[in-house]
Amino acid sequence: MAISIKKIFPLLLFLSFLGITRILAEGPEPLKFRRHSIEAGLSQAVIYDVAADRRGIIWIGTGNGLNQYDGYQYKLFKQQPNNPYSLSDDHIRVLYVDPSDRLWVGTQEGLNCRVLVRDDLGQPAPRFIRFKATPGDSTALQDDNIWSIMEDARGFLWVGTDKSLYRARVATDENGNIQAQFTDFGKRFPEITNTRVSDIVADGDGNLWISTIGQGLFRLGPAEKKLTRFDLQGSIATQNFMDLFWLDESHLVIGTYLYGAVVFDIRTEKAGEMLHPALAGHRIFSMVRDAVGRIWFGCFGEGIKCLDPATGEMVGYTNIDVDRESLSNNYVRNLWVDQSNMLWVATNKGLNLADLKPNKFQHYANNPHQETSLADNVVLSVTEGQLKGKKGVWVGTNSGLDFLDREKGTFEHFKVEHHTRRSSSGFVFALHNDARGQLWLGTFGGGLFRFDPDPSRMRQYVSNPEDPTTLSGQMVYDITEDNQHRLWIATTSGLSCFDPESEKFIRFNPDPADSNSLPSTNLLNLYRDLKGRIWVGTTDGICLINPADMAYLPVPHARAIRQTLAEKRPEVLLMDREDHLWIGTNYGLHSLNLTSGEMAHYYTEDGLSDNAICGLVDDREGNIWVSTLNGLTRISQDGKGRRVFRAYDARDGLNNNEFLSLACYKSPRTGEIFLGGMEGLNIFSPENVYDNLTPPPVLLTAFRKYDRLVYEDLALANLGQIELGPTDRFFSFEFSALDYTVPEKNHYAYQLEGFDADWVTVGTRRFASYTNLDPGEYLFRVKAANADGIWNTEGTSMKLIIHPPFWEQWWFQMLVIGGIAALLFSLHRYRMARLLEIERMRVQIASDLHDDVGATLTKISLYSDVLRSGREPEQQAGLLERIGQMSRELVVTMSDIVWSIDARNDHMQDLVDRMQDFAMSVLTAKNIDYFFDVQLKLPQHSLPIEIRQNTYLIFKEAINNAARHSGASRVDIRISLDAGKLLVQVVDNGRGLNGHARRSGHGLENMKMRARRIKGEIVFQNGSGLGVVLTVPVRL
To answer: How far is CA 303 from CA 284, 320, 464, 629, in A?
Structure first.
């Protein structure tokens, strides 16, 4: 790009000097501006600057805050008095995105930088860091009114204010916060103090070039030790320089106030002539180069100018009050061109967008202020032809006939007077240029005309019901020509064939006896195929005629056609190169394979712009172009033979979406396609209707849970992953494709890997919602296509982790498994302990039975043997009494054992009741008084068998000893259960320890042995009687 500018630069100067460069193109290339103002969501209509970050997000600085735009909606950032991380001021002068993708915002009350930091929870949080003037601080700004910002190759930030130039060292800490130390170069170089620094640019040698208001141009050397001022008053009548722009590496363009744009040669340090005379007297506030090398000038009061360096041609664009697609305001403050070659224009009355890509469609429309424009916007018919030997385009309108001179872009108008009753003069419904070059006109009510520029030589052919050799009807819809150069005319009263030589008409009407004849006299269209056959579309169906013998032919696959056209009208017909008959109806498009008889049907859901078809034409590539009542559609085939639809409308460059039936024509010479509609004429070459091949960037713009915003914008873009809890059952992603050509026609597809089996295509919808997902790791991916269907297949993605509830997490499951294992182990141990306990009980019972029962039975056996030996009756009576007593004791012992192992006697109260019964039976029989004191807080507490048995036997031994051996007259018994201890006290008032028996198995040692078995403690208190105190630990 720079090489071509170098080549033409001397030529530009030379032409400017001679004054022969085109000052302004007579007919500038149409440029439609889309206007954005407060109604579209902007915070203010006065726009100062426009910038874009690395992601493609647009930032707009206004006099009332900073606006963020993603092609669909605006988000506003303003000063918030109680928020130190908001903007320092709402009046924004300048925006700058540095190489680190940080957005710097210069306001009239300080400098701001938008950064991403980590909050107290470690989450990314965007905020603005303020840099305000601090008097007395040599490392801070001393002036808050910011006008220019740039970063040099060394990473220094340069800031131009209303009074000086500052250099800043910018540092970032680990949390993303930034600090800046400023150096005031006005103190180093007084000549730049008290002057507004309007722009700063750098050259390839590291020099800074600085434009100012009032002091002209400065150069600051790479070592920052020398500041050079260039006095250009001899060359430029003003020193008010607004903007700087590199024409190439050696020539700097200076945008001035009221003196246009001047070229400065940095090698010779001389200012040359004005870049272009058309800029004389203009206030140049901004300059920018587009994707094809054209230079655009934003003029404050004069709109926009565009210079093509290759031709030296300058065109201008200004506001036109009656044209809402013109520039909204002529006071242009800034220009910017994005990666899609879209021009962004900041004006005093809103933001304007224009697509700088070559126009796909050429427009012609009526201009009331231009006599040579199209006579009427309602274009009914189009064909090519000649006028006075010059080739051009004939256009039939509501107001007559126009001839378009393509070279001049002008129209010549011809009135078509019908001279008939009940006709609409001027309505030219059909045009046909025959093989001899004669133009024929079909009119609405005036019949057929053989055109001649001389009205007196124009010939009109009308219908006469009494003369069958005249035209069938006055209302002519379509005209075609057969191989014998006869004209076929479709009217609302039948079909006519006209022989220009004899000037006679042959009429064709429905014939009930011929099923192949016309279905109706109300004809809609005619089509001649490559075999020379004439296809006739009527309100009641289609018929086919062989012009060679004037005979009707059977319509191929007539039944399929009749079924398709039930309650439909065949508005237009076309035969393509693959022998498919295309039938455009008032409801849908249909394609009949004449070889197989297969019929395909296409509607809006398949990709058509509208179901009401107006025109059909095929291009040289075999694509089918379909005009409708709501736009234009191209139908092509992909590599697999599938139909691919691409819709075009006014947003793509058409002058209107509403086309008219049969107002379509393809030039056999150039392949151009002509389309007429309600707003004029469109002309285009299909091969030039190319796609925007730049895939759009796609961003995640928001993440919501239960429709509550969680993350957005920069914070979302810098998240590594999103983690959700088990209760986060509903969430959604929002996304945006940053192609601003026709953003509302960008398309999207998304996939949640791990859930969606394939991509979900959602058209223009910009969000995806999910509910009730299983815990796990997912990857959300989204891709987007621009308005031409070019996909960014890489797209963007976000990792998503849904944590399970605690009972599904590994640590809990391990804990449960461990708990179950411990429980099973405990149950096993308990079972084994129970088995051991039962075994010990069995051993103990066996031991007791052996000790007590066995000994007693042995005694009984011995006494029985003695009785058998024949003792004296007195002795026998004594022995029998002894045997009886031991038998009773044996029964009691067995009863005690059975009671102790009976589970129904587990409770503490059961033990106390048995103790009371025993004490009462023994002590009462001995006439011993007793006192029983029971203190049980938990009488229903269960006691293990071993404790119950041994406690009872110890108690029983103590009572027996007191009753039999102590000689006591009173026994005090106390039983209590508290604090995990069972306390049993048996105290008598007898002879004390010496009076008690110490027999083996029944003495004190036996009581001690039983206490040890149950881990209890027994104490014998010897005094005025014997006290037995048993303490047993019990689990409560």
So the answer is: 10, 11, 61, 35
Which residue in the block uniquely carries the two structure tokens 């190759």?
153
Average pLDDT over residues 848-859: 69
Secondary structure class of 448 (helix, strand, coil): strand
d(CA 741, CA 343): 10
**What is the domain class of 698-803 according to CATH?**
mainly beta
Structure token digits, residue 24: 């302004």
If you write DSSP's letter for every residue of 151-178 in order, what string do you get?
E-TTS-EEEEESS-EEEEEEEE-TTS-E
The contacts of residue 686 (CB under 8 Å, 6+ apart) are: 619, 620, 621, 623, 625, 634, 671, 673
Q: Are 417-555 and 906-1036 equal in CATH topology?
A: no
| pTM as predicted | 0.75
Using a pLDDT cut of 90, give the percent of the chain over it: 68
For the chain, the domains span 417-555, 698-803, 809-901, 906-1036
pLDDT tens track for 457-488:
999 999 999 999 999 999 999 999 999 999 99
Written as one letter, the residue type at 805 is P
What's the 3-state SS for 247-303?
CCCCEEEEEECCCCEEEEECCCCEEEEECCHHHCCCCEEEEEECCCCCEEEEEECCE
The topology under which CATH files domain 906-1036 is Heat Shock Protein 90 (3.30.565)
Q: What is the pLDDT of residues 632-673, one digit of tens each?
A: 999 999 888 899 999 999 989 898 999 999 999 999 999 999
pLDDT of 2 over the 70 cut: no
pLDDT of amino acid 7: 41
Using a 10 angstrom Cβ sphere, with 0-12 exposed, 13-18 middle and 19 or more buried, the burial of residue 564 is buried
Best CATH choice for the domain 417-555 from the list 3.40.50.10490, 2.130.10.10, 2.60.40.10, 3.40.50.2300? 2.130.10.10
Structure tokens given for 632? 């234009």
Phi, psi of 720 (to 5 degrees): -75, -35
| CATH class for the region spanning 809-901 | mainly alpha
Say whether 933 sits in a helix, a strand or coil: strand
